[in-house]
Give the backbone structure.
Amino acid sequence: MMENWFVSRSIGRYIAEKEQDFFDGHESCRQKTVVQMGAAWLRSREGIIVVPRDVKMDCTAMAWESQSLDCLKMAHSHEYSANPSLALAEAARVLKPEGKLVITGFNPYSLWGLSSWFDGRCLPHRSHCFSLPEFKRLIQTLGFEIEYGKFMVYVPPVETAGGLRFWHFLEKAGDRWWPQCAAVYGLVLIKRRAGVHLLPEVETELAEESMVLGTARTIG
């Protein structure tokens, strides 16, 4: 299954390392409610709730209350679900306004799209993987905006460590010349809500005014 593939195969560990760097660099929700859906191979800092290690639930029917999470990490977990679109809709439901969804997905239009690994056992079914244009259209309908994006893994789907070393030169070349052919993309998404958002300086002024009024009432 997925967890075994990412830790037992050279190519799986290679991808896991790339994605670990991506998630480590874009987890900005410190001191807040952060949940990681699946991906036990992904190392997480202390304080993050990991599904299913800490609590069991399906990503298409999350037990969290609406607008209760500050950050949600999904390393391919939507692709392994029975309904990837529903899993993303659930992510939008449980995140607070301005909350972040940090997510990775396989690119079906890369060299990897031809691999027999996309069988629902080692890797998700190919039909469950969105191309980046498809993914962008879907997340826009759910109220997400893209804050940051990164393409990863340009080596072909080889089995051995020797094959990875041989093809490693494609990483720099691919990142420069054909980034959209990468096997994996990572995105940091922000859940937006229409309405008025106070500027930080306005919020500070309102807080100071409230303190003055409170003091005046006490003295009076």
Remarks:
- The helical segments are 2-8, 10-25, 84-94, 132-141, 161-167, 170-177, 200-219.
